[in-house]
Amino acid sequence: MTSAFDPGPSGDTFPCGQCGAKLGYDAGTQAMKCPYCGFQQAVPQAGGGHVREIPIEEGMRLAARGYGTPVAQVSCRECGATVNVPPGEQTATCTFCRSHQVLAQQSAGTAIRPESVVPFKVDKNSANHRFDEWIGSLWFRPNDLKKMAKVEGFAGVYVPYWTFDARVDSSWTAEAGYHYYETETYTDEQGNRQTRQVQKTRWESARGRRTDTFDDVIVCASKGLPENLGDSFRTFNTGELTPYRPEFLAGWRAESYAIDLMPAWDTGQTIMGSTQWSRCRSDVPGDEQRNLHVDNHFSRVTFKHVLLPVWIAAYRYQDKPYQFLVNGQTGEVIGKAPYSFWKIFFFVLFLIAVVAGIAVVVNGQKSKGSSSSDTRTPASLPAKAPSRSGR
């Protein structure tokens, strides 16, 4: 393996001040920690503790490049993810899909450096515990799933995201509908004339404007995570972003972004535009509306390239990859798992049997009730009065 990026001014090997071994970032203590003697050291603050927002039109010129620390880079030929690992780490499988088709490669180190990072708070033991709870709660899954997934274990990865801030000036046009009622005369089934109130709608043209600001709209830039999973996290708190320091990557993996800045901004505009459409819809007066058209103008756009912490349990079942994710900041869990055809099949048969059994009981009770109410034995019939014709 080769080093993909140039080291920082001091080489950024982070030696332990007590025993000289290499320090790594520890999620439990949120500090640099020696795995041998336990020595701890705080991560220095960068940029005065302030996270920088970069104007999007200046992004390619102002953004720093590389990770500022030696890393090795491996690329997966199956899912396409490119992951940066600590130098010397022997990586035989892909972190995201567990494929063995990984290839060490060298990068020019020209990728935009992360501007900020949310450090890991959830440690590996906690992630494992959440995984056990999640997989134990699943129904209709293969019996051997828990054993297979647990064997593969967890990997902590910093996943790349872009965040965007913007001011959006929106103008809209629509037709606003106002309800009113008219009295209508009609003839009922008996031939009588009746009256009733009928709702009508009066349509009028409407227009308006509004201005809103967006802060830290996040767009996943990963290629290793399936799109529906990478965008599913809802609990990342970007208020806890801290300026990027190479120390945060010590002992951890970090995926390189696969979606460039401008394509990500296109996605960001779509997200903001959808929100603005809903807001403008709420501004339309009347009881209902139609033909809403919204025109958005984006300004004061800034971005950050950020790394967000994710624990990944990638496993393969019948040669198909599945992922289980734990938000390394909040502990939120997201996962996909295969279904067991036979469990679902037998459960459906069970439901059919239950429904059929209930139907038989109900029909039997109806038949019994009908029989007891409509039939009488001869003994229960009233005695016939004697005839008086013989007198």
TrEMBL record:
It comes from Polyangium fumosum. Keywords: Membrane, Transmembrane, Transmembrane helix. The lineage of its organism: Bacteria, Pseudomonadati, Myxococcota, Polyangia, Polyangiales. Residues 365-391 are annotated as: Disordered. Residues 365-378 have a biased composition (Polar residues). It comes from the Bacteria. The chain crosses the membrane at residues 341-362. This is Zinc ribbon domain-containing protein. The keyword tRNA-binding does not apply.
